[in-house]
Amino acid sequence: MPNPVIDCLMNHRSIRKFKPDPIEPETLDLILRAGTRAASAGNLQPYALVVIDDPKKLERMEVKAPAAIIALIDQYRLKRWFELNDAPFYNDQAINLFISYWDAVIALQNIVIAAESLGLGTVYVGMILSTDVQELLGVPEYVAPAGLVFLGYPDESPQLRPRLPLEAVVHRNGYHIPTDDEIRSFYRDKDREWNEVSETKKHKLQEKGVYNYAQAITLGHYTPEFIKGESQKLIANIKKAGFRLWEKRSKTKQE
Ligand SMILES: Cc1cc2nc3c(=O)[nH]c(=O)nc-3n(C[C@H](O)[C@H](O)[C@H](O)COP(=O)(O)O)c2cc1C
Predict the structure, then answer these.
(1) Fewer C-beta within 10 Å: the chain N or C terminus?
(2) Rounded distance between C-alpha atoms, residue 185 and residue 168, angstroms
(3) How far is the CA of 213 from the centre of ligand 1 (A)?
(4) Atom 3 (ligand 1): residue with closest C-alpha?
(5) What is the residue with the minimal CA distance to atom 6 of ligand 1?
């Protein structure tokens, strides 16, 4: 039962090389509207979408693309509205942080799907979570990064990247703890990819203690030092924004 939406989803691939052509304002506007049509907790839309299309700002970013959209957790706008209406609310609480994160990310994924359906290419960049958005964007309190996507007309046509078999990720009516053999079978295709790596490259990696695909991940890009460093920066962002994950909530004016 294919249809255009399913076809678009099944053809998703990240694009990392873009044509310099700008995205037409009407197209970008439509994409943003489709993004904000996503479901939203309490229909409060506790997120913000920052469009970056200033070439000077884009120049300093990881990917060369005509536009980027940064999705932010935004409890600040909500707080202002509540204050104007004398409606006390704990914006700094963990549940608000996570609900805002959820809202922001699904809006961003709506943006990705809308963009791809219109012939644009997209790529997410994870480093935004550890970026100081107060410094980068001048955000106020209760605003923290949630996601970043680059957009533009594709200048490459990469292959579809494989996904794990459905049984690796889908559980029915409860969480099935997989056996070691099941885990091995879920990742068989990745192990096969490792076997196809050239002998010269393998040799170089083996010198660094990398003997399989999993080790290439944990000893290559996502090293313990990298993961710890990124996590510390992410936590610093959350704290700097004023969210309290571990401390007691702040007192409101009424208390
Ligand atoms: C949360 C998230 C963060 C990502 N961060 C990066 C990134 O920093 N750099 C990058 O080149 N791709 C990034 N990607 C894209 C993934 O590498 C890509 O989706 C994955 O390799 C599968 O390829 P495909 O999207 O072409 O199917 C990210 C994707 C997600 C969902």
Answers:
(1) N
(2) 9
(3) 17
(4) 126
(5) 125
Domain 4-158 has CATH 3.40.50.720: no
List the single range of 7-11, 72-76, 198-202 with lowest mean pLDDT: 198-202
pLDDT tens digits, residue range 228-243? 999 999 999 999 999 9
pLDDT at res. 163: 96
Indicate whether residue 109 lines ligand 1 (CB < 6 A). no
Domain boundaries, the chain: 4-158, 168-225
CA–centroid distance, residue 125 to ligand 1 (Å): 7
Is there an atom of ligand 1 within 6 Å of 16 CB? Answer: yes
Contact 111, 35 (CB under 8 A): yes
